[in-house]
What does this fold into?
Amino acid sequence: MERKEWPLWEVFVRSRNGLDHKHCGSVHAPDAKLALQVARDVYTRRQEGVSIWVVKADNIVASDPDAKPELFDPAEDKIYRHPTFYQLPEEVGHM
Amino acid sequence: MYTQALDIPQQNADAKPLRAVENAAYQAEFDAKVDAGGFIEAKDWMPEAYRKTLIRQISQHAHSEIVGMLPEGNWISRAPSLKRKAILLAKVQDEGGHGLYLYAAAETLGVSRDELMDALHSRKAKYSSIFNYPTLNWADVGVIGWLVDGAAIMNQIPLCKCSYGPYARAMIRVCKEESFHQRQGYDLLLTMMRGTPEQQEMVQDAVNRWWWPSIMMFGPHDKDSVHTDSARWGIKRISNDDLRQKFVDATVKQAEVLGVTLPDPELKWNEERGHYDFGAIDWEEFWNVVNGHGQCNVDRLAERVQAWEEGAWVREAALAHAEKQAARENAGRAAA
Ligand SMILES: [Fe+2]
Ligand SMILES: [Fe+2]
It folds into this structure.
């Protein structure tokens, strides 16, 4: 029989309520239900999570690493977007 | 994540030189990043040799974790108490997990899981030679945790800062779990050493058999080492001999506390060096085992291949089921 790999799923785990789900790795599984099961066994053996997302890797669209300058450099010279850009009199106190 | 499956939308082809081609500008950017102690991520440009080295190293590492389940797995059904059985099960399951983290990291470099499996099963890929020694008595389980996992920890901690992001992150996860492995082993041995003279003898016997193979785990001496690029690329940050020395220095005291003798008459403190000296390693034995002539090479691989082949129908059935379910759902949606 022709060999076929189980598809790849990306795994995101919320370590506790109040925090974002964070990418932690990937697993192979035939479908979503088993992907969750496998992800639980592989990535949360010590209560590392309270919630898991799995996403088929094919469904993730990533930005092009070569496009880094076009995408991210335009923000580099906009330092006025940061609070520290503004020097205020000390008497104003914390603002 | 960061796998070959994460397709990047096709950009204007003329805008940039082909990434696949070795290119001086990309190379300079890569070198600068690595020299500054930065990370390379899966979709970043990297020299072909760097990619190949990583695939070789990460996959060998993954294979070692997976094959490493076998010598200890042998003792799960023979553990002397329910507590020890539960601990050993958890430990062996962790090793399986480590293999899976690492296979996933290797796959980000554009190699498939099936290819990796094939390489192991066809003996094209190697795994750590330590797992080709037999586990003869229950104390072996303790000594593996103490010495083999201990040596692995020494090797693995520097990898948490290696230049390849997905590998470094997988190693952080692995290292967090390894401390449990070493401590449960040492705890097991402490318990046996408080037991009967026969139990104490079992521990000493296991230490006698595992000590030399454990310090061989750090690989050939630096002067005989072939993979020098790894240091330049920030994959290997501490040399084999330095790691081995660190391990020996740390272990002597632990052996003393345990009340066992390390089987090396030349082992003694060197005031001048500030380290323990130790005897010559039998490299002939090392290469013999690496090249397939250890006591268990044949058995270990046969067991691996058998497990893989006997699981084939499960993998196929699960996939067929998933495909059928998906087709049914699609048909339902089309009808609605
Ligand atoms: Fe491990
Ligand atoms: Fe371990």
